[in-house]
């Protein structure tokens, strides 16, 4: 009896960070089924608002979803089941049973307990997802797709022992399950038991869905401009003195890193929807964010304060608000 089973066709999805590691795991699974990820992408729009973080509630990009995650996946013709396991043996049996049915698994873990992650092992508690795409019962290892480190988007194929996976899973359950309110394990099957309502969708169809989602949330989107203006005003005032900026520089960098990632994802959607003018506008917005982010990171690293440069933030703020307003006008005129 063969004790080794590996679904080699499941590959890492790299190059785009979308919302969280859960979505990058989902993209790999969806791609392995030969399906398009566009239904997931056009299901979300973003607006400026506040997000929860380790530092509390910060300015950032809020996601507004048309359908919940489980529904959108089912609508793609994928059968998804969610699980939380109480005992070690039930967890191993649940994963093993799914893999033997050629159903990949996405599992939440705490990478503080993952020795394959040198950047976090015994250093940093972090909730994270692994794709389990194979197993070796004799060696007692699972084959997983894992991110190399938190600071990059490179993913690779690794092996982790049953025991280590159990510890990492238990770490998630005890520290994050109640906080995140997310099932700890997902199994996926593409056996055509569920109809894919997007099977015949064209690029134009996805564009229509995306624009309709924007239209239904127009008031919320424009309210976000006021939130953006408040944040930019606060940052501009703070940057007027070295002492004030020193206190907030790390927070601003964290905020802008997330914003840049979210805007890159939004740009990726417009590229896939063949909306060249919106891609160009997003490029301009990204360049504005990147320019200020570079200045603040440089200040943090060198502690050299350029008063003249930061005094120009008012001009930068005016350009940012003008270009963001122009972007929304373009979206709502499509």
Outline:
With 334 residues, the protein is α+β, with helices and mostly antiparallel strands. It contains twelve helices and nine strands.
Lay out the secondary structure.
Elements lengths: L3 E3 L14 H12 L5 H4 L2 E10 L2 E10 L3 H7 L3 E5 L4 H13 L4 E6 L16 E10 L4 E7 L7 E7 H14 L1 H4 L4 E5 L13 H14 L1 H21 L3 H31 L3 H27 L4 H5 L1 H19 L3
Antiparallel strand pairs: 1-6, 2-3, 4-9, 5-6, 5-9, 6-7, 7-8
Helix pairs in contact: 8-12, 9-10, 10-12
Can you give a write-up of this model?
- The structure is a single chain.
- The chain has 334 residues and is of the alpha+beta class.
- The protein folds into 2 domains: 4-35 and 76-189, Cathepsin B, Chain A; 203-331, no CATH class.
- It is 51% helix and 19% strand.
- The protein contains 12 helices and 9 strands.
- It has helices at 21-32, 38-41, 69-75, 88-100, 162-175, 177-180, 203-216, 218-238, 242-272, 276-302, 307-311, 313-331, and strands at residues 4-6, 44-53, 56-65, 79-83, 105-110, 127-136, 141-147, 155-161, 185-189.
- Strands 1, 4, 5, 6, 7, 8 and 9 form a 7-stranded antiparallel beta sheet that branches. A two-stranded antiparallel sheet has the order 2-3.
- α9 runs antiparallel to α10.
- The radius of gyration is 22 Å and the shape is globular.
- The protein starts with a strand and ends with a helix.
């Amino acid at each position: 009896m063969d004790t080794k089973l590996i679904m080699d066709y499941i590959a890492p999805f790299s190059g785009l960070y979308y919302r969280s590691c859960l979505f990058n795991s989902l993209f790999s699974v969806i791609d392995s089924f030969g399906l398009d990820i566009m239904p997931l992408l056009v299901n979300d729009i973003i607006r400026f608002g506040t997000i929860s973080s380790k530092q509390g509630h910060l300015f950032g990009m809020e996601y507004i979803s048309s359908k919940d995650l489980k529904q959108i996946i089912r609508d793609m013709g994928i059968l998804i089941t969610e699980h939380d396991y109480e005992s070690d043996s039930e967890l191993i049996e649940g994963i093993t049973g799914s893999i033997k049915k050629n159903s990949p698994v996405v599992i939440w873990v705490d990478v503080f307990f993952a020795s394959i992650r040198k950047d976090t092992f015994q250093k940093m508690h972090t909730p994270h997802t692994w794709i389990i795409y194979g197993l070796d019962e004799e060696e007692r290892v699972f084959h997983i797709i894992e991110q190399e480190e938190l600071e990059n988007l490179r993913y690779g194929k690794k092996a982790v022992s049953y025991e280590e996976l159990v510890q990492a899973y238990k770490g998630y359950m005890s520290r994050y399950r109640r906080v995140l309110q997310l099932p700890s394990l997902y199994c996926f099957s593409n056996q055509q038991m569920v109809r894919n309502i997007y099977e015949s969708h064209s690029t134009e169809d996805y564009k229509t869905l995306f624009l309709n989602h924007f239209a239904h949330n127009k008031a919320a989107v424009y309210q976000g401009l006021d939130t953006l203006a408040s944040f930019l005003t606060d940052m501009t005032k703070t940057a007027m003195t070295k002492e004030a900026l020193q206190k907030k520089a790390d927070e601003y960098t964290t905020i802008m890193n997330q914003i840049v990632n979210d805007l890159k994802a939004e740009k990726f959607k417009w590229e896939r929807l063949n909306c060249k003018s919106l891609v160009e506008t997003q490029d301009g917005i990204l360049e504005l964010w990147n320019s200020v982010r570079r200045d603040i990171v440089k200040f943090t690293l060198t502690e050299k304060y350029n008063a003249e440069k930061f005094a120009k933030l008012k001009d930068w703020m005016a350009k940012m608000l003008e270009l963001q307003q122009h972007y929304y006008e373009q979206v709502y005129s499509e």
